[in-house]
TrEMBL record:
Function: Catalyzes the formation of 3-(3-amino-3-carboxypropyl)uridine (acp3U) at position 20 in the D-loop of several cytoplasmic tRNAs (acp3U(20)).
Biological source species: Cinclus mexicanus (American dipper)
GO-annotated cellular components: nucleus
Protein family: Belongs to the TDD superfamily. DTWD1 family.
Protein name per UniProt: tRNA-uridine aminocarboxypropyltransferase 1
GO BP annotations, alphabetical order: tRNA modification
Length: 234
């Protein structure tokens, strides 16, 4: 029995070793296989040092410099790093467009992942707590709301959709006219399909520019109250 047990253990270790080897080979194969940015958008991702976070973790919770609340790493109500995380050591990015995040009032602040966007792109991301949101009526031709629905268009079709909307925008005072483009799903012939990453540059070339993206931060059960708000229609 002891011999069988040892043999079984040896066999299991061999299988684990071979499995790990196969996983490593598979990973190396994936890394070596050329792929487009669309297939692997994180292939050019450059990670900053996490040393500042490791130091803060050892120090434990710290105070928010604005509200003095005890937090770890950052304050999820003031959207700033805590005292043990120097702002100079936190990388920030510049986004190609503005982002508005509409947060449901019942969402737990500490569980919202929208805060990370605000921390990393403070100049381009704005977080609103519903119902305190901006009026988008006059800017609808340059804004896209990311949300599934019967009249939604794909990301790659946004520029085409905005172009259609802008053409009709001259008669926006007429309700029927201004709503017409919203009832039709934008269509693009197969040869005209574009990479989603070209959406912004494409819209510029076509005389239309996507300037802002809106996201809703809530559970699916809570989205209905926000998505049906008249300020987000169209």
């Amino acid at each position: 029995q002891l011999t069988m047990s040892l043999n079984s253990s040896t066999l299991l270790n061999d299988e684990n070793t071979q499995g790990a080897k196969r996983n490593t080979e598979c990973l190396e194969s994936l890394l070596q296989t050329p792929s487009s940015f669309q297939d692997n958008p994180l292939q050019q991702l450059q990670l900053a040092s996490q040393e500042v976070l490791e130091k803060a973790k050892k120090s434990g919770r710290s105070k928010c410099p604005r509200c003095n609340s005890s937090r770890m790493f950052y304050c999820y109500t003031c959207f700033v790093p805590v005292e043990t995380v120097p702002t100079t050591e936190i990388p920030t990015v510049k986004l190609p467009l503005k982002i508005d995040i509409i947060k449901h009032p019942n969402e737990t602040d500490g569980k919202s992942t929208a805060v990370q966007a605000k921390l990393l792109a403070p100049d381009d991301v704005t977080i609103y707590k519903y119902p305190c949101i901006p009026e988008y009526e006059e800017k609808r031709h340059e804004i896209a709301l990311v949300f599934p629905g019967p009249n939604s268009v794909s990301v790659k079709d946004i520029a085409f959709h905005l172009q259609k909307y802008t053409k009709k925008d001259v008669c926006a005072s007429d309700d029927d006219c201004s709503r017409e483009p919203l009832l039709k799903q934008a269509k693009i012939e197969p040869e005209e399909e574009k990479n989603p990453n070209e959406c912004i540059s494409s819209s510029r070339n076509e005389g239309t520019r996507l300037k802002k993206i809106i996201f809703i931060d809530s559970t699916w059960n809570q989205t209905n109250k926000i998505i049906t708000d008249e300020r987000l229609q169209g």
